[in-house]
C-alpha cells in the first residue's frame, strides 16, 4: 500500500510507493526491454496485463487481440482506488493512504510504432480514449486532480518502449496545478480575461516563438522555457476542460499534435520526451464541499506541455526551482519551424 | 548575455543562458571527457581556465600548479557579475539582465579522486573554501541568494568528471528557498521554535530514518523523501548560516560528509548524485531595503541535501510537482546504516 507523506519543510506531499520494493541493486539494471513476443502491450499477450478498463475494438472479446487502443491498470500503481482518504498527524508530518488511480493507455498494438508514427486518425482515437478516461475518473469525488502524461524513451522515465501514456488521479491538488489555477483565478478576477488567452494572442502577434499555426490550435515555444526545445500546444479558443472537446476538435488536435511530434523527431533526431495534458480539475464536491479550484469561474485553459529530455535536472535546478536553459526559445522555434517533415 | 524571464503562468523566473549557444546537434554529443593531460581542472592546465578567484596553496604564484583547492569563474556562466538589475515588462512577461555570479570550486588537483575519496582533512579545506566564497559574495547587495551545489556524474548533470562543485548567486530569492524560508518564518512566529530543530529532535528520538549520528551532526533519510536514498545532513545545533561555522565545526562536518558519501558509494556502487548546501540568504539590504527573508529573526537552519540520481524525473513529476518514490526512507536508512565503509 502506498502512502502520501507531507513534508512540512518543502510544503509538499510525496508518494512513497513501495509496490516494486526497489532495493539498492534494482537501480543498476537497465530499463526492461521486451521484443514483440514478450512485450505485455503487444497483441496476443493481453493475459500478461491486468484485465482491461476499456479498449477500442471492432468486435471480439475483451482482453483478446483485435483492439486498436487499450487501457489497463498500471502493474505497479503509484496509487490505488481502494482505501480511505483520511490523513493523520505523525510527529511534525502528516500521512494518508495512497488513494487514487493509475492507468496505462496503450496507444497502438504495433510494437515498433511511436505516437508520432501513427496517422492523425489513429492519434485522434488515442485522444478520444484520453477524453473518455478523464471524464470517467472525474466522476469519483475522491479524486481532486487528473494528470495524463507520456514518457517516451528511457531517459524520459519510460520503463517499456511500446508506445503508451499514463493517467494518474490524485486525491489532492498538486503544487504545479495550484500555482497555475491560482494565477488564472487571480488574473480573471482582476481583468475578466483568461491569462492563457492573453499569452496566446501576444505570441500570435509577435510570431517569433510560433512553430506552427493551425485554424484552431497553435504550437509555440514558451517565452520562459525551462528546457531547450520545450513546446506548448494550445487551443486558440478558450476551453478550460479537455473533456469538453468534441470529435471534430480532437481530429484537428490530432493533426497539430502529430505535426509537433514529427518536427521534434526531425530536428532533435527522435529525442526522449515527456508530455503532459493540463486540464481543469474535476468539479465533483467531496464530502459535500467543492474544491476551491473547481468552485468558481471556468478560468483555466487546457493545453499540452512537451519537454524534450536533452539536459539533466541538476543540483542548481533541484536546489532552487530556477532553471537554466541553454537554447533561446526563439532559436528553438526557428529550428522547429524550418523542420522538414 | 543571459536573461532572466518571468513566466506569469508558472510564476517563476527562468534563466535563458545562451553562452554555449546550444543548437539541436549539440545535444547529441556525449558529455566532455578529458584525460588528465587535457583536463582544464588538472595541474599544469591552469591557463585553460579563467584566472582563479581564490586558491589554497602553500606558496607559488596564482594560476600555477601547487594549489590544493582552486576557485575559478565558470567558463559558460549562467549569470554574470556585470549588468543592471532593473526588470522591464514585455507583453504579459517580465525580463531582466542575467546578473549574478557563477563560480567553480575544484576540490582537488587529482583527476582520479572523487570528493568521497579525499581525507576528512582535505574535505574540511574544501568546506572552508565554500565558506570563504559564500561570505565574500554575501557582501554584494545585488545578490539575493547563494546556492552551492555539486553535480557528480554525467547523469547528475556534470559535464567534467574532475571533482568540482559550483556556486551560483542569483539576484532573486528562488521558489524552493521562498517556501522553506516562509515555512521557517511562520513556524517560528507561531511557536518560537525552529521547525528544523523539531524535525531533527523527532528523528533522533524515532531512530528509524537515522543513518549515522555524530556528536554535532546527524545524517538521515527524510520522512517524505522525493527520491530513493535521498539524504540530509543537519547540524544538531541551531545555526541559520553556514558561514558562521568555525574551523572546528568544519572539521566535524567533513567527517560526517565523508561518512555520508562513502555509505552512498558503498550501497549504491558509486551513483551519480547532486548535493545542495541550503543556508540562510545574505542579509545586505539592496537599495536601502532589506530583503523580506533576511530582515527578521534568524529562523533558518542550514543543512546539506543529497539526491542520488537513480530514477528519472518524468512526466508525472514535471506536470504536478508531486514525486513518486519507490523505496521507503526507512528501508534506505537501513541499507545505508549497515553499509560497510
From TrEMBL, chains A, B:
Signal peptide: none annotated. Its cofactor is Zn(2+). Binds 1 zinc ion per subunit. GO terms for biological process: galactose metabolic process. The keyword Chloroplast does not apply. It is an enzyme of class 2 (transferase). InterPro entries: ADP-glucose_phosphorylase (IPR053177), GalP_UDPtransf1 (IPR001937), GalP_Utransf_C (IPR005850), GalP_Utransf_N (IPR005849), HIT-like_sf (IPR036265). Keywords: Carbohydrate metabolism, Metal-binding, Nucleotidyltransferase, Transferase, Zinc. The keyword Nucleotidyltransferase applies. GO terms for molecular function: UDP-glucose:hexose-1-phosphate uridylyltransferase activity; zinc ion binding. CDD domains: GalT. SUPFAM superfamilies: HIT-like. PANTHER family: ADP-GLUCOSE PHOSPHORYLASE, UDP-GLUCOSE--HEXOSE-1-PHOSPHATE URIDYLYLTRANSFERASE. Belongs to the galactose-1-phosphate uridylyltransferase type 1 family. This is Galactose-1-phosphate uridylyltransferase. The lineage of its organism: Bacteria, Pseudomonadati, Thermodesulfobacteriota, Desulfuromonadia, Geobacterales. The gene is galT.
Amino acid at each position: 500500500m502506498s502512502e502520501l507523506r507531507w513534508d512540512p519543510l518543502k510544503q509538499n506531499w510525496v508518494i512513497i510507493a513501495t509496490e516494486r520494493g526497489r532495493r539498492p541493486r534494482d537501480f543498476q539494471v537497465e530499463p526492461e526491454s521486451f521484443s514483440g513476443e514478450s512485450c505485455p502491450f503487444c497483441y496476443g499477450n493481453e493475459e500478461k496485463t491486468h484485465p482491461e478498463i476499456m479498449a477500442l475494438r471492432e468486435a471480439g472479446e475483451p482482453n483478446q487481440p483485435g483492439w486498436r487502443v487499450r487501457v489497463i491498470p498500471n502493474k505497479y500503481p503509484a496509487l490505488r482506488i481502494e482505501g480511505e482518504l483520511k490523513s493523520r498527524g505523525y510527529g511534525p508530518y502528516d500521512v494518508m493512504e495512497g488513494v487514487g488511480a493509475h492507468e496505462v493507455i496503450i496507444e497502438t498494438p504495433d510494437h515498433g510504432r511511436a505516437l508520432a508514427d501513427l496517422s492523425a486518425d489513429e492519434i485522434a482515437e488515442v485522444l478520444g480514449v484520453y477524453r473518455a478516461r478523464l471524464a470517467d475518473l472525474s466522476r469519483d469525488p475522491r479524486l481532486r486532480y487528473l494528470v495524463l502524461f507520456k514518457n517516451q524513451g528511457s531517459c524520459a522515465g519510460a520503463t517499456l518502449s511500446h508506445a503508451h501514456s499514463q493517467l494518474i488521479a490524485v486525491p489532492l491538488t498538486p503544487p504545479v496545478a495550484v500555482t497555475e489555477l491560482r494565477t488564472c483565478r487571480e488574473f480573471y478576477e482582476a481583468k475578466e480575461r483568461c491569462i492563457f488567452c492573453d499569452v496566446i494572442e501576444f505570441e500570435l502577434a509577435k510570431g517569433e516563438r510560433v512553430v506552427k499555426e493551425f485554424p484552431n490550435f497553435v504550437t509555440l515555444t514558451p517565452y520562459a522555457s525551462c528546457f531547450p526545445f520545450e513546446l506548448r500546444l494550445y487551443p486558440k479558443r478558450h476551453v478550460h476542460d479537455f473533456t469538453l472537446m468534441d470529435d471534430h476538435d480532437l481530429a484537428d488536435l490530432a493533426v497539430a499534435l502529430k505535426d509537433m511530434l514529427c518536427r521534434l523527431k526531425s530536428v532533435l533526431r527522435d529525442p526522449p520526451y515527456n508530455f503532459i495534458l493540463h486540464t481543469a480539475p474535476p468539479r465533483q464536491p467531496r464530502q459535500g464541499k467543492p474544491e476551491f479550484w473547481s468552485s468558481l469561474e471556468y478560468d483555466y485553459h487546457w493545453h499540452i506541455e512537451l519537454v524534450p529530455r536533452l539536459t539533466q535536472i541538476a543540483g542548481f535546478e533541484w536546489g532552487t526551482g530556477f532553471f537554466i536553459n541553454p537554447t533561446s526559445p526563439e532559436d528553438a522555434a526557428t529550428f522547429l519551424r524550418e523542420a522538414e517533415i
